[in-house]
Design goal:
143 residues, 0% helix, single chain, seven-stranded mixed β-sheet, mainly beta
């Protein structure tokens, strides 16, 4: 069974914000993602971590649906992020992260995205390990 691809895209203002599922616009009251990865080893293996990713559709506000297995693409001014986990059981170890078109899984410390339509103000950030060290992290705001 093919996986589902969600795409969150904005040009920076609420009116330009759109969420699609397999290319078709969907209406959600909330989209949430928190991905945290501990530094990997010198061989490029990612460390342990966790991921929580869910969507709450506007017409079913009491039901959060997991996004994985699947793909989440985030496109905001200055940032392109793709999070892919197509493992049938959504095993964390199968998670891959691309940032600005480059495979960056072993360099990612955290990706956070929260879009709540009642607030009309999305929040998000991406944090990258610099030099592979857990103590040297640079964080970029997505908005």
């Amino acid at each position: 069974m093919p996986s589902t691809t969600y795409r969150f895209e904005t040009k920076g203002d609420w009116d330009s914000t759109i969420l699609t599922k397999d290319g078709q616009e969907v209406y959600a009251s909330r989209l949430y993602l928190l991905l945290r990865i501990k530094p990997g080893d010198k061989y490029g293996n990612i460390g342990q971590g966790d991921i929580v990713a869910a969507i709450v559709y506007a017409d079913d506000p009491n039901n959060a649906i997991g996004l994985f297995p699947g793909v989440l693409e985030i496109s905001v001014p200055g940032h392109e992020i793709t999070i892919r986990n197509e493992s049938p059981s959504a095993l964390f170890e199968e998670t891959k992260v691309e940032y600005q078109g480059l495979e960056m899984t072993s360099s990612v410390a955290e990706v956070f995205l929260e879009v709540d339509s009642t607030k009309e103000i999305p929040d998000g950030r991406v944090s990258l390990y610099q030099g592979g060290k857990e103590t040297n992290i640079e964080t970029f705001s997505l908005f």
